[in-house]
Amino acid sequence: MTTTPAPATAKSPSPPPRSILLDPAFLRLWAGTTASGLATWALPFVLGLAVLHRDLGAAGLGLVLAARTVGFLAAVAVGGVLADRHARRAVVLWSALAAAAAAPLLAAGLGRSLALMTFAAALAGAGQGACRPAFQALTAETVEPGRRQQANAAMTLAVRGSTLAGPALTALLAAFLDVRTLLLGIGALWLVAALAPGKGGVAADTAEPRTEQADGSDAGSDAASGSSASDVPRAGFRSEFLEGIREARRHPWFLGGLAALVAVIALGYSATSVALPLISRDRYGSEWVLAAAMTAYTVGALGGALVIARWRPRSPGWAALAGLGAYGVAPLSLTLPVHPAVVVAAYAVAGIGIELFNVPWFTATQREVAPDKLARVSSLDFLVSYGLAPVGLALIAPAIGRFGVAPVLAVCAAACFLVPAAAALVPTARHFARPPGR
Q1: The pTM of the whole model exceeds 0.90
Q2: If DSSP codes are grouped into helix, strand and coil, which group holds residue 216?
Q3: What are phi and psi of 218, to 5 degrees?
Q4: Secondary structure of 60-75 in HEC code, one letter for each residue
Q5: How far apart are CA 131 and CA 326, in angstroms?
Q6: SS3 of 218, please?
């Protein structure tokens, strides 16, 4: 006797993936990161308004901004170690609270005490610096690996969107509020950055495979909290920082990509920052080229973030480095007597390319680096790239004075093209990943 087999049940199509912004845990993290980005961007703009209102001199502005940079660079490495040693959420909380506390000090010192403003700016920079690696590591804890590229793209969209809309919004607020009130508003943004993110740990169980150390212990066993087991003696700060450097050296793609990033920031970005205002004034006789090019760069970055949120290239590392190298078209366009529209288009291409690099770069770091060392490796990224940017700015202006604008821009454009191309030849650079089993 035979039986008729039951008809196969048709599989219902899987529902489309839900937007990362509908995830409550990520939404809280996104709100905190966005608030910190707005506060970071707004401070130089508001201090510039203080110069216009004669509450702060130009020399004072330079001193205050320099103090913020020094505070950032001093704290970013410390923040990386602390975020791997303690809960990342706690590091975000206390560093953002420190930056929030700096705002009323800046307001109190405005027009009264440059020394107080300088101290407050250094405190704000320290809070910002300590936040950055902690936010990177907290993203890896909050978002499961398959959605991190979308999450990093959402972060970028928020930052670039605030850069585009921020000047108009701040100028509008300045028509009704004085500079001191605007500074207090920056402090309120830092409070949002401190309080909005959750504890993380949502993606801890789905994180990447843990790294086994030489003694057989599990290097990632405390990834969710960033701390070691209580019965393991705590290494000193210097030892833990050097451990982060050793972890970075395990990833040749990271070292090559970081070298390319430094070349583009310290040479390409610095050169265009100095040369674009000069060329806009001297060659085109108008400031609108400067404004249009910078706007096009931001719009291009928004477009690049939208593309990379969904695009998964077969060779993500090579695609990212190609995007980074595309920044070279910006200084190249300034070396030639081209129509202003070409300069604006070149900046749009540069903006697209920089986000085609940034999002896969952050995603790969979160995926490949041992979870308990992620904040330290991220701090190296910020420390080297941000730390060498002022050096580039300091050298470009004298170089232009000695050799002329066109030769300096040509050299910087060549560096933007060639260094990322060389980084693409580094082992493991093609996929921004170590081979399986290594």
Answers
A1: no
A2: coil
A3: -95, 110
A4: HHHHHHHHHHHHHHHH
A5: 29
A6: strand
